[in-house]
Structures are given as structure tokens and as C-alpha cells.
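Protocol step 4 of 5: obtain the predicted structure for the target chain.
Materials: sequence only (see below). No template structures provided, no constraints applied. The aim of this step is simply to have a reference model before the mutagenesis design in step 5. Sequence pasted as it appears in the construct record:
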Amino acid sequence: MGDRKGHVTTAGRPKHLADWLTLKDQALDVVAEGVTIADARQPDRPLIYINQGFERMTGFPIEDVLGRNCRFLQGPETDPAAVAQIRTALAERRECVLEILNYRKDGTTFWNRLSITPLRDAAGEVTHFIGIQSDVTARRVAEDGLRKAKQALENDLRLAARVQQALLPPPEIQAGGLRIAHAFHPCDDLAGDGVGVVSLPHNRLGIYLLDVSGHGVGAALLSFTLAHLLSPTIEGSLLTENDGTGASVVPPSRVAERLNRQFPMDRTRQYFTLVYGVADPSSGHFQYVMTGHPAPVLLPRTGPPASVPGSGLPVGMIDDASYDDETLTLGPGDRLYCYTDGAIEALGAAGEEFGLDRLLAEIARWRELPLRAGLDRIADTVRAWSGGPLKDDVSLLAIERTG
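Step 4 output (C-alpha cells):
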């Protein structure tokens, strides 16, 4: 039969044990990871083996490393908590996986994903610790860059949100015989809703509430742009024109048509709904247009609330859309409520929308409160119905004739 000592007969393996061990050494040396073996039976657990991957990763040659504890990789910025975690795992003879900042021979740092595994003998005693080191510096640097970029973006978004809030009109305005109030509750830092009250020629007021499709930065940018355009102070305002005798107020329907031509959806990839009206504080007369927006609700001084007439396509939906003006006159004590669809489409715990009927009931419920206080109560009820973060912006605007 012959002497088979020193041979390995498993299929596919070299026949001689020496050849097999050489093959394993070669395999360990070509891998990118560092591999170390520490003797757990000797004081301070010295290294008795390192592969070439360890040399390439750390710059420490074999002759400088064998017989030393692996703590020589630590340096001034190595986290003491990570070192303590390693020390505890070794003392307890258990596995340990963590990422730690280590130092190469030339003093440069690298992030090391270190895996330590105890090796036990037949009696269950730990005789050695196998260490696997992987250089994860590139990943850590990329993650750190992403964190910093995310933080910078969040800071920019918070700044933009503060700017957006600063562009809002005061929470309550008294203008002649009209009181105007609003409640503005974005679902994110930046809102796609817009609220405005602007002075117009001949002691008129332009009042609008708009809702841009979608959420986030894109919707907020369009909302910013619209707030800029719906202002009489800029050159070429959409709200006023010079008829030869001086500045005059552009009817709301023509404002909507101008916006529709300026913001076609095939270019902006967005559309928006709008209720815009021109109010006369002395008479309570209100001329308005609706472009796909929920119909405002009229709450007379006595009597139940009801939606007012009006309709129209959202701005940007189709080319050459036409719009019609509607008119109403607020009597003393009458209120007109405008709202975005986030108020009626807010979902409750059972998936049911808040709905127009509940909104009408809330408007009637708080009719005796001052205008702004009543709006805040209505907004609180909608948020309570959602039972958590809002899924859409909720904006309310109300006009009351006080004269």
C-alpha cells in the first residue's frame, strides 16, 4: 500500500501536504484583506503570522510585526471606545467586528473593518485569534461626504423655509372694512402652497391662495416664483396695467390666463391651482377666479356655510384655457374661507378623508371666535384627524367684512 503520511487525498487537492500548505499561503497572500494570527496562550497575545495583504495595507513588513501585539496600529485619533470594545472581546474570548481608525507605518490613517475570531482546540480552549482587516477608508470618506452634503442641504432647506415664511403676509390684516387672516401648515420644510395679500391701485386688495402640484424643492421654487409674479411692485406685474390714464387693476380671469400662458405644464412639468380675487374693502365686493382650486366657502353672519360658485382648469393644464370671473359681496359679519385640498384630503387613521362636510362643520363651529383664532382651531382639527405628520400642505385663508 505504501506510506501515505504527509499526503492529502481529498479530490482536487494537491497530493502532498507541503504543496497544500504552500497553496493556502499563496491564497492568503494574494487576497486584498489583511490576515493575522495572534497566539492567545502567550502574554500580550503576540502576532505569529501576517499575510502580504496586511503588509500592503499597513506598510509594516513582517520582520517589524511578528512577536508584537497588534495595538501598534493605534494612534492619537483612534477611538478609545473602539479599543475598549476590542479589549473586552479578547478578554471574554469571543468574536468582535467593528470599524476603527488605524495608522500605517508612514503615519497616514485608514479605516479598518476589523474582524476577530477566536480559534479553539479540541478541549474548547482558545489558542489563537484570527484577525481579518479590510481597508474601508474609501467608503467611510464617501459616507462622510454624503453626510456633510446632506447636512448642507438640510441647512439650505431650513434657510429657504425661513425665507418662504418671511414672504407670507402677516397672520392677520385689517384693511378698511375687511379683516384677512391665514393659517399656513406645510407638510415639509418647504411648501408648495402660497398665500398672498397685496395692495392694488384704487384702494383694492389682491388676495390669493395657490397650491402647486407635488412636493419638495420643485414645488417650492414654483411657489416662490408665483409669489414674486403676483406682486404689483415688480416691472410688468401680472396684476396691474397702464391703460393710458394710470395704473388699473387687471381682472382676475385675465391674470389666470396670463399665468396659464407663462407656465405651460410641458415646460414646467407642474401645474397649480389658484383662487385669486380683487377685494374692495369699502364695499365688500369681491371679484375672483378659480383655476382647479377647491371652491371657497361663504359663511354668512347668520345661516350655514356653503361653497360659492366657480370653476376652471388648473393653470398649465392645457394651452389657451379661458377663465371666467365670479363676483360676490360680503355683508357685515360675513366670512369667506379659502383652503387648499390638503385640508379636505387629509387621511384619518382608517384611511378616510377629512372631507368637505367636516370642514363646513368646523367653519360653522368656530364662527363666534375671532377670525384668526377660528382658522387655527380648524387647522388643529385637520392635523389631529391626520394623527401624525401631514401628507400634504394645509393652508387656510379667510376674509371677514367687519364694517
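Step 4 remarks: Confidence is low (pLDDT under 50) at residues 1-11. The CA atoms of residues 156 and 395 lie 23 Å apart.
Proceed to step 5.
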